[in-house]
């Protein structure tokens, strides 16, 4: 909280030095536009649309990325085949994938979610692959000796060891996905925080751009502090 307070003081000083509300308004100048956007329902509506896209892309990217990373980390032959694909998609700019999805699928909700998902899967798979490579072979051998079913081995042997890697992928995933979602909305959607930022950018309205940007950042900080960080501490508890 003190760190965020320091950031707020820096903003106040910068706004005072700029002395131009059209360039950088003071923080308290955002309160009235924020309250008005809440009153009209505009802010909750667009914020909700963006959060739905973030949630869909996050679930799909994490599910497919964990599966791909686990296969690549556990089976060297699959890793040799799929590694070039992974490198290609890791280095393919997000903007290119977004534009291609819009051109191929159309300016639809499906195209938006597919574009964000494809951008994030390689990053998740890379992290999970390293976790799968680091699995303790002794624990795996123990599971085989006791003839544990595959589902039980995954639950009690593999997943506890992968938990820190899954958590790391999830934390970075949320941070990256919501930024890409804003770009997707900026380029080709008719609602969402990115669309609103695009609208107010065209109107040169810095205040409303900051209102929407900070509102979404506040939601993502809440997700980080209330969900991801406790999850990370719980995932690491067994190592203690």
Could you characterize the architecture of this molecule?
28% of the residues are buried. The two termini are 28 Å apart. The longest helix has 39 residues, at 150-188. The chain contains ten helices and no strands. It is elongated and about 70 Å long. It has one domain: MetI-like fold (Orthogonal Bundle), CATH 1.10.3720. The chain is mainly α and 240 residues long. Helix 3 (42-74) packs parallel to helix 6, helix 3 (42-74) crosses helix 9 (193-202) and helix 5 (94-105) packs across helix 8.
Summarize the structure.
The chain has 240 residues and is mostly helical.
Strand and helix map with partners:
Blueprint: H1 2-18, H2 31-40, H3 42-74, H4 76-91, H5 94-105, H6 109-133, H7 137-145, H8 150-188, H9 193-202, H10 206-236
Helix pairs in contact: 3-4, 3-6, 3-8, 3-9, 4-6, 5-6, 5-8, 6-8, 8-9, 8-10, 9-10
Structural class: mainly alpha
Q: Count structural domains.
A: 1
Fourth CATH level, the homologous superfamily: MetI-like
- How much of the sequence lies in strands comes to under 5%
Looking at this protein, list some descriptive labels:
240 residues; MetI-like fold; mainly alpha
């Amino acid at each position: 909280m003190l760190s965020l307070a320091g950031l707020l003081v820096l903003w106040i000083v910068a706004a005072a030095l700029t002395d131009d509300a059209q360039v950088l308004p003071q923080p308290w100048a955002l309160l009235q536009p924020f309250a008005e956007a809440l009153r009209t329902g505009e802010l909750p509506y667009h914020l909700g649309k963006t959060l739905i896209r973030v949630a869909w892309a996050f679930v799909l990217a994490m599910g497919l990325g964990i599966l791909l990373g686990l296969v690549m980390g556990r089976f060297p032959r699959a890793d040799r085949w799929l590694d070039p694909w992974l490198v290609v998609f890791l280095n393919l700019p997000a903007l290119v994938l977004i534009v291609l999805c819009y051109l191929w699928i159309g300016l639809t909700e499906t195209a938006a979610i597919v574009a964000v998902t494809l951008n994030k899967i390689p990053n998740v798979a890379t992290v999970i692959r390293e976790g799968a490579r680091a699995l303790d072979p002794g624990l795996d051998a123990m599971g085989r000796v006791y003839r544990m079913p595959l589902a039980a081995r995954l639950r009690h042997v593999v997943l506890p060891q992968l938990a820190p890697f899954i958590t790391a992928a999830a934390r970075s995933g949320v941070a990256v996905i919501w930024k890409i979602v804003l770009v997707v909305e900026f380029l080709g959607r008719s609602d969402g925080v990115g669309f609103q930022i695009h609208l107010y950018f065209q109107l040169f309205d810095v205040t409303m751009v900051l209102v929407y940007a900070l509102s979404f950042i506040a939601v993502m900080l809440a997700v980080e502090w209330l969900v991801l960080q406790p999850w990370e501490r719980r995932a690491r508890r067994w190592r203690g």
